[in-house]
Amino acid sequence: MTAEELRTIIAAGLPCDHLEVEGDGRHWSAVIVSADFAGMRPVQRHQRVYATLGARMHTDEVHALSMKTFTPTEWAAHPH
C-alpha cells in the first residue's frame, strides 16, 4: 500500500479538512483534521479512523497507524 492509497481510503470514509499520511508501506503516521471529531475523546477519534480501514487493520495490510487527530478549530489553534 502507498501513502496515496491509504490517504484515499481514509478520505473516502471520513470527511477531512486536512489529511497527511507518511509511512514505509506497513507502518504509518497520519495527521487527520475532521469536523466529525467534534465532541469525541481521542480514543473515539482513533476508532473512527480505524473503522474507515476496516479489514485492512486485521489482515496486516496496515500493520501500524500512529495518528494525530484534530477538529478544524483545534487545527487552526495548533502550531504547524
UniProtKB/TrEMBL annotation:
<comment type="similarity">
    <text>Belongs to the BolA/IbaG family.</text>
</comment>
<dbReference type="InterPro" id="IPR002634">
    <property type="entry name" value="BolA"/>
</dbReference>
<dbReference type="Pfam" id="PF01722">
    <property type="entry name" value="BolA"/>
</dbReference>
<dbReference type="InterPro" id="IPR050961">
    <property type="entry name" value="BolA/IbaG_stress_morph_reg"/>
</dbReference>
<protein>
    <submittedName>
        <fullName>BolA family transcriptional regulator</fullName>
    </submittedName>
</protein>
<dbReference type="InterPro" id="IPR036065">
    <property type="entry name" value="BolA-like_sf"/>
</dbReference>
